[in-house]
């Protein structure tokens, strides 16, 4: 592998004195001492396997050169040491793993999404929890991942594409507009709310610098508004998970207590995994069922999270979603897109096309089966997989199409070991050697697709997206 530049040291955050005083008051002397001691321990790095691409953690660790230890927060999550644990690792480019703060994995464990369900991740960027939900869905059902900030929504899309997710729609919407378009539609909704980020002070010094004693109350107002919209997108009997990465009771127990008071058709449910410790009913006005939510403090093995799982009563009233059929515009119709994609898949992949072929002008998509049509008028970044476009009468595939290939499916491929200089060159954007017939060829990193190129005259023209190339 190419030699890596040493990374500059991460600046150390100084927790505000008022924050520490609050924590001392909340936790009491003994627990506060443990909290403070954990704050100075080395930061644990978390790695989550992409179950869509790899389920064998020992083989993964051996080949990737990592040492993995299980975490209590999620069965597919590990604390990681050794090797090149970074976004530059070829298997990171291939979407085989996601680097994530360990306790952040707990929210999807609490949500417990199952294949075939319709799931909404309402505050989704950069996609830590969306990629985990998609992996748990195993390609069946639907994930709607939404992010309000445009630039962050693009990063969310990029991470879902890297993970090879086929059955997601990515939106850049306000919670209000998104939920109004999907009334009563989802089996499960995750609100991983914007918060004061007290659990991220060590990793994000900016969060510590911005914090004031008034921040939690301001965040709580926004969180309650988001939850009010989130509930409208849930079907009766569905599950709502609320999570934050902050410690402030105002943003955790108090927000959930107020929600339960205003929505008697919702009730707290136990989380099917005993990470961290029970939440504190006395920090949320005394509602006893708050004890079913969980808190994770640094002394519990993660930077900090709060997770509550609520269920909507099965008899509650729900709205009905109304969708409109997609239009094709000029160019192919869906039947022609189907024929073209079948031929391309037969040549390139050992599986037929998945989803529903759809042509929008010159661009061809494989739409999620679970979404018969799309709501109109929303800022949609992607529905399903963008397969490619017709250019000068020929089909040109996308990077996302190769990343979404099932493991072992690429028929025409050059498979390079992780440390191979040609792999480093490809990820850097260079041409590499290619034997054999001309045409599109997948580039694999030890069995997993990282992208593709077009072979001609013994070389592979590089189609690795510029924005993703290593420097
Ligand atoms: C805690 S982060 C989400 C992290 C994400 N779930 C993950 O695991 O990668 C909260 C997100 O909410 C977004 N956000 C900020 N203000 C919002 C608002 N008023 N409504 C909805 N989302 C908002 C932020 O841009 C941010 O991406």
Automatic annotation (TrEMBL):
Give any single GO term for biological process.
RNA methylation
- What InterPro entries does UniProt report for this protein, alphabetically? Methyltr_RsmF_N (IPR031341), MeTrfase_RsmB-F_NOP2_cat (IPR049560), MeTrfase_RsmB-F_NOP2_dom (IPR001678), Nol1_Nop2_Fmu_2 (IPR027391), RCMT (IPR023267), RsmB/NOL1/NOP2-like_CS (IPR018314), RsmF_methylt_CI (IPR031340), SAM-dependent_MTases_sf (IPR029063)
Question: According to the lineage, what is the superkingdom?
Answer: Bacteria
Q: Does the keyword Ubl conjugation apply?
A: no
Recorded GO MF terms: RNA binding; RNA methyltransferase activity
One Pfam family hit: RsmF_methylt_CI
Q: Which PROSITE patterns does this one have?
A: NOL1_NOP2_SUN, SAM_MT_RSMB_NOP
Positions of the catalytic residues: 245 (nucleophile)
Ranges of residues in domain SAM-dependent MTase RsmB/NOP-type: 35-313
User: Which residues are noted in the entry as S-adenosyl-L-methionine-binding?
Assistant: 123-129, 147, 192
Keywords (alphabetical) are: Cytoplasm, Methyltransferase, RNA-binding, S-adenosyl-L-methionine, Transferase
Family note: Belongs to the class I-like SAM-binding methyltransferase superfamily. RsmB/NOP family.
PANTHER family per the UniProt record, alphabetical: 28S RRNA (CYTOSINE(4447)-C(5))-METHYLTRANSFERASE-RELATED, NOP2 YEAST -RELATED NOL1/NOP2/FMU SUN DOMAIN-CONTAINING
Q: What is this protein called?
A: RNA methylase, NOL1/NOP2/sun family
């Amino acid at each position: 592998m190419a030699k890596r530049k040493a990374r500059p040291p991460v600046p150390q955050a100084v927790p505000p004195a008022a924050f520490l005083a609050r924590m001392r008051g909340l936790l009491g002397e003994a627990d506060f001492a443990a909290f403070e001691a954990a704050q100075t321990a080395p930061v644990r790095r978390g790695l989550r396997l992409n179950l869509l691409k790899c389920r064998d953690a020992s083989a993964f660790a051996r080949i990737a050169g990592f040492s993995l230890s299980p975490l209590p927060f999620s069965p597919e999550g590990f604390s990681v040491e050794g090797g090149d644990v970074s976004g530059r690792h070829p298997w990171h480019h291939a979407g085989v793993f996601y680097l994530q703060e360990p306790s952040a994995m707990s929210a999807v464990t609490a949500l417990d999404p199952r294949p075939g369900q319709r799931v909404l991740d309402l505050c989704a960027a950069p996609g830590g929890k969306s990629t985990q939900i998609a992996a748990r869905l195993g390609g069946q059902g639907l994930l709607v991942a939404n992010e309000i900030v445009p630039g962050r929504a693009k990063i969310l899309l990029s991470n879902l594409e890297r993970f090879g997710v086929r059955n997601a729609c990515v939106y850049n919407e306000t919670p209000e507009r998104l939920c109004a378009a999907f009334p009563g539609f989802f089996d499960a909704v995750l609100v991983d709310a914007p918060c004061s980020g007290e659990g991220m002070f060590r990793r994000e010094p900016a969060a510590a610098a911005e914090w004031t004693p008034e921040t939690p109350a301001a965040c709580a107002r926004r969180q309650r508004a988001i939850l009010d919209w989130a509930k409208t997108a849930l079907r009766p009997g569905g599950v709502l998970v609320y999570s934050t990465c902050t410690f402030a009771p105002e943003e955790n127990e108090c927000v959930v207590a107020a929600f339960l008071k205003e929505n008697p058709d919702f009730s707290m449910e136990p989380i099917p995994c005993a990470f961290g410790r029970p939440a504190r009913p006395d920090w949320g006005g005394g509602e006893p069922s708050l004890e079913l939510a969980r808190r994770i403090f640094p002394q519990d093995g993660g930077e900090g999270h709060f997770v509550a799982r609520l269920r909507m009563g099965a008899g509650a009233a729900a709205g009905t979603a109304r969708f409109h059929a997609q239009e094709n515009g000029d160019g192919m119709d869906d039947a022609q897109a189907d024929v073209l994609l079948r031929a391309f898949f037969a040549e390139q992949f050992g599986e037929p096309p998945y989803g529903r072929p759809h042509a929008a002008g010159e661009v061809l998509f494989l739409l999620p089966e679970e979404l018969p049509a799309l709501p109109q008028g929303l800022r949609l970044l992607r529905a399903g997989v963008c397969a490619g476009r017709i250019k000068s009468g020929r089909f040109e595939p996308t990077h996302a199409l190769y990343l979404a290939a099932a493991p072992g499916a690429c028929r025409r491929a050059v498979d390079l070991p992780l440390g191979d200089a040609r792999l480093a060159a490809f990820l850097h954007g260079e041409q590499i050697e290619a034997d054999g017939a001309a045409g599109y060829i997948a580039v694999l990193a030890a069995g997993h697709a990282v992208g593709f190129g077009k072979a001609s005259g013994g070389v592979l023209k590089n189609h690795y997206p510029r924005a993703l190339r290593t420097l």
